[in-house]
Specification:
Layout (H helix, E strand, L loop, with lengths): L1 E5 L2 H18 L4 E4 L6 H13 L8 E4 L1 E3 L10 H10 L9 E2 L8 H14 L5 E4 L21 E4 L2 H7 L13 E4 L2 H5 L3 E6 L5 H9 L18 E5 L9 H10 L7
Parallel strand pairs: 1-10, 2-3, 2-6, 3-5, 6-9, 9-10
Antiparallel strand pairs: 4-8, 7-8
Helix pairs in contact: 1-2
Length: about 260
């Protein structure tokens, strides 16, 4: 896979925002898959700045969700729909009509999962899917030992993931839902270009296992090795356990005609 080591989170955000800008220039109605959490925020800030300056016209861009909590009331500030509206849709000047996601409050959650998987296919597929990675190597909410062929489905969160996400719920783990709807690993691999951003030393082991370890369900993100065009962008801290870090730096620096990811 393509591995790019950048100095810090801001540089990673700018680089990925440039890749998104190039995609939108080629395909104005591109379907952009977004992730939540703190890691992708530099991407959204950099992209919003490009839109505000007139460098990017995102007016026809479509946005889709990677995952959603099950059971949070409509409009809950930490539902992922609310987060995406707040951090992506509004800063880019888009309308809610441009946004599609799974229904975490549906009475029949399994039917909602299947409907969302169909909707992504009917929309022409995801052009670029942004991803983060958990300390245990999960992507989306595909926890360790998830099927590498899995589709959008309901998942039970591990205790560690609930602990990690408690910071978004006033550090109260009791407020963190136990279940989510997530794109499956197979669904994620359907995207034309998955881009994973990881920052900080706490992600270093997961990054090393994803990039240099075997493809294994115990590290769900390792499935990205199977994709013909997957990119992993990491800062120096997250790259600290990569045995081939110097090779990746040299490859990036020497890439001919470098125009983005």
């Amino acid at each position: 896979m393509e591995v790019v080591i950048v100095p810090d989170a801001a540089a990673g955000g700018e680089l990925i925002a440039e890749a998104i800008a190039a995609l939108i220039a080629r395909k104005p109605d591109a379907l952009l898959g977004v992730a939540t959490g703190s890691t992708p925020l530099p991407i959204y800030r950099a992209l919003a700045a490009k839109v505000a300056s007139g460098a990017v016209d995102a007016s026809r861009t479509r946005i889709c969700q990677l995952d959603e909590y099950v059971g949070l009331p409509a409009g809950h500030p930490e539902s992922y729909r609310s987060v995406v509206l707040r951090e992506v849709i509004e800063p880019l000047g888009l309308s809610e009509a441009s946004f599609m996601g799974p229904d975490g409050s549906a009475e029949d959650v399994q039917a909602a999962c299947e409907a969302y998987d169909r909707a992504l296919a009917e929309a022409g597929g995801v052009d670029l899917q942004l991803l983060g990675i958990g300390t245990d190597g999960h992507i989306g909410f595909n926890e360790p030992c998830s099927s590498l062929a899995s589709r959008t489905r309901i998942k039970t969160l591990t205790e560690q993931t609930r602990v990690d996400n408690a910071r978004f719920f006033d550090d109260d783990i009791e407020q963190v839902p136990h279940h989510v709807i997530t794109q499956g690993i197979g669904t994620i691999l359907d995207a034309r270009h998955p881009i994973l951003l990881a920052t900080g030393e706490g992600k270093a082991e997961a990054v090393a296992q994803t990039v240099e370890g075997p493809v294994a369900s115990i590290v769900p993100a390792s499935a990205l090795q199977l994709h013909p065009h997957a990119t992993v962008v990491v800062d120096e801290a997250a790259a600290s356990k990569l045995k081939l870090a110097d090779y990746f730096r040299a490859t990036y620096a020497a890439k001919p005609g470098w125009q983005g990811l």
